[in-house]
Amino acid sequence: MTTEGLNLFVVDDDEAVRRSLGMLFLSRGHAVQTFAGGEDFLAVANLYDGGCVIDLRMGSLSGLQVFDELRSRASALAVLFLSGNGDIAVAVDAVQNGAFGWLEKPCDDERLLEKVQQALAWSSAQSARLCARRAADALWQKLTPREKEVARRVAEGKPNKVIARDLAPIEPRTIESHRAHIFAKLRLSNSNELDRFLRKHAL
After folding, report:
1. Residue 163 pLDDT
2. 21, 44, 143, 196: most buried, per Cβ within 10 A?
3. This prediction's pTM
4. Strand order in the sheet with 101-104
5. Is the dihedral of CA 163, 164, 170, 171 positive or negative?
6. Are 21 and 35 contacting, i.e. CB atoms less than 8 angstroms apart?
7. What is the DSSP string of 65-102?
8. What radius of gyration, in Å, describes the C-alpha atoms of the chain?
């Protein structure tokens, strides 16, 4: 899986650290942006494409607050914490709550680069899943409320007569019409594909 062109962000309130890590990542071909604080990062970063946030130390908005904000926005970005001795417990707690990982400072450059590459690969896959979910949800929202009711029963393999009885008063011929509209709107061919579609995207 390629990670070329993915976003890489360094957030730290120490300019020397930002410059050092920025040069390291640039020297290895990564497109990197640096930020002095979490507010600046959240204001301009694309949170839904694949990428990785390297979080060290920041000002008024802490790394954990930024991480919580990314989670609340269902961001595809992987969060990698670099922590000092006093921050290890906090970093471990963040990982248990969904952060990609943490490394203790000082950290070897090669180990950091390897971890970042892993984070970018994970985030690329996560971004693809989110993109597919958004596309599926957009298709699903094209259905009327009645078509959604019919779709769920079609996915269960119920025949038109049974669905018509479940949703009475409604005629089986109307169910047949709904079924055709559902398959056309969702770009599916049969009830098996519809069942997989609903399960895959948790609709």
Report:
1. 96
2. 21
3. 0.73
4. 32-35, 7-11, 51-55, 78-83, 101-104
5. positive
6. no
7. HHHHHHHHTT---EEEEEE-GGGHHHHHHHHHTT--EE
8. 23
